[in-house]
Structure formats: C-alpha cells, structure tokens
Amino acid sequence: MARIENKRDVVDRIAWNIILPVLVLALVGFYAIYVACSNDESNLGSPLKGMLTQTIWYFISAAIIILIMQFDAEQLNKLAPIAYGIGILFLIAVLFLYDRHTAALSGAKSWFRLGPLSFQPSELMKPAFILMEARVVSQHNQTYEHNFRNDWLLLGKILAWMLPVAILLKLQNDFGTMLVFFAIVGGIMLVSGITWKIIMPFIVFVAVFGTSIILLVTTDWGQQILSHWFSSYQFNRINSWLDPSSDTSSGAYQLWQSMKAIGSGMTLGNGFGSVAVYVPVRGSDMIFSVIGETLGFVGSVAVILIYLYLIIQMVRNAFETRNAFYSYISTGIIMMILFHVFENIGMSIDLLPLTGIPLPFISQGGSALLGNMIGLGLILSMKFHNKDYMFSTAGDF
C-alpha cells in the first residue's frame, strides 16, 4: 500500500467530486424510501425500519470503501483472480441454496436468504468481474502489439471470462443482471484498443440479433421458438413494454401504475411526500416513480443531472490517470452505473422493458448498494493512488 505523508495529503487524494454527488443521491434515496415505506408499510416495513436498514448498509459500504482505497493498482491486479473466483463460487452456490419464496415471486434463483436478510451474489460479482476483465485486457496489451490477429485474441479472452458468468446467470434465470454484464463487456471492449474493423461488425451483429429477438417475441410462433431460452414472464414484460395499455390489470400493471404516478407529478410534483398512485415495488426497482410523482418533471431532471455530473467526474478521473489497468476498471464501473440508471429510469417510463435493476445509490436494497459502493471504492482508489503512478508505467500490467 502506498505511503501517505500527512493528513492533508490524504484529504487531497480523496475524490470529493465523486463523493459529493453520491451523498446527494443518498439523501434523495432516503427521502424516496421514507415515502415508499410510509405508503406501503405492509410490503416494505415501517419508515423507521426502511431508513435504518438503508443507513446500516451505507455504513457497511463506507467501511468497505475505506478498505478498498488502501489497495493500489498492483494489489488490485493480484486480487482480481481471487475476487472473480469467489464470485463464481457464490453464483454456483446460489443455484442450490436460493431463496424459494423469492424465486416463486420473481422467477429468478438469484437470492440467498439468512433469516430476515436477503442477498444477491451477482451484485458483488459485478465489481469482481470488472477487476478481472481489466486485468486480462491490461496484461494482453502489455504482451502483444495491436494487429488484426491479436485483437481477435483479445476479444476471445474478454468473452471467455464472460462465458461462465453468462451461463450461471442463465441458470439463475436472471436476464436483467446479465444485461449489466454485457454492458460492462461492451464498454471495456471499446477502450481496449481492439480495431473498429472487429468492433463494428460485432456491434451490428448484436443490434440485428437483439432486434430479431424483439420481433420474434411479438409473434406466437416466435415465442414458441424462444421458449427454450426465455420464460413466460419475460415474454410478458416485453409485450407490456411494446403495448403497456393492453393488460393494465395484470402483466402491465406495474408499468402502467408507474407511468400514471410519474405523469401525475406533472411539472413540479404533487408535493413533498405526497403520493396517490399505488406502484408495486416502488421502494426498490420502481423508486423513480416516487421521485416523479412527488417532485415532478423538475425534480426528476435534477436527479438525472446529478447522475450525469457523477458520470462526468468519473470520466475525468479516468482521463487523469496514467495507469491502463485503472482506466479499464473505471470504464467498467462507469458502464455498470450508467446502464443501471438508464435501464431503471427507462423502464419506469416505458422506454425500456421491465427488469429487476435498481437505481444506484437511491433504491432500497443492500446487495445492489454494496455492489455499487464497491465500484465507487475502486474509482476512489484510482484517485487516491494516482500520484504513485502519474509518471510511471509500472501500473500497466
């Protein structure tokens, strides 16, 4: 661990430009959770319990961030395979020890339960996966020159480390989380140095494949073909996305209620803490409906701008580092958070299909918060140890 000379040096090394927007988002989260718990006590617990639980998770996450910040690039590089291996073991274990009640409700075998606490190991796998992919790309680029053959080799390595995760998430029936990992891989590919002669056909293939899946879902015979890979509730979510008014009492009920709640907020909202439209799971996945209904269009845009500011500051820190390994980590974390924000808000207003993806730093839930905060800790570590590598190539592994 790098030696820190004095307290002022420590303060200067902390990325306050990243911490401050996260604190603001946390305050927004406490507000939204309080409102959700106050109106859905039977599902989420009392407001005091909801706030206390989220506070505990924030304190645990803060302690982990402080620990992660002590590790520099070299140490994180060595820890990457260990973190990835532990994450894979947890993803395997949850296939046998998953919470039966949650699986019956959501269709996904992706949660452990210990008494009153539930835990989703794939959330912690996300930063571990980013560390491993960053290690793979940085080691490859130090060993090989970029040419057509070596770039194909690098692409194969990136996808090879993704394959076990994708298989295990498919067995868990957790397609939403798998999309996050695809977004992470896509971001790392773009900055890995792979030639556009490879990347562009790959992007075209993914776009055509995704469009074909959506078109197939809209037909009965297409759903029969895809039934081997997708569950009926996933078909219902896509159908609800394409036509939310078709079944507002069943399959599209959650989406329809979210749109009603956000629409009712209009420009300035219905007032601080004032909600009138019931939205299922609004304390976690649909928490943006609370913001839209109570704070209106102005409040919703303000929250989006805070996320935009956070992403911009993360990108700035990535450009400031001279360490390739850190840059790939930063890219993965940025893509993870950006996709979470884009998907969560998008599904709340029918821009995207419904998935069980929470809103970073705002939604109620310990697993997702812990995973995002670990990612934040990796970004803060980059800033904290930046001076140690600013004029050195030792960090390019």
Structural summary, described in words:
This protein has one domain (7-389). Helix content is 73%, strand content 2%. It is built from 17 helices and two strands. Strands 1-2 form a two-stranded antiparallel sheet. Helix 2 (16-39) packs antiparallel against helix 4 (47-68) and helix 8 (148-172) runs antiparallel to helix 9 (175-191). The longest helix has 33 residues, at 288-320. It is globular, with a radius of gyration of 21 Å. The chain starts with 6 loop residues before the first helix and ends in an 8-residue tail after the last helix. The relative contact order is 0.16. The model is unreliable at 389-397 (pLDDT under 50).
Number of separate structural domains: 1
Number of helices: 17
Q: Note the overall shape.
A: globular
**Which regions have little confidence, pLDDT < 50, spanning 5+ residues?**
389-397
What structural category do the secondary elements indicate? mainly alpha
Spatial order of strands in the largest sheet: 1-2
Mean pLDDT: 87
N-to-C order of helices and strands? HHHHHHEEHHHHHHHHHHH
Task: Round the Cα radius of gyration to an integer and report it.
Answer: 21 Å
- Indicate the proportion of strand residues: under 5%
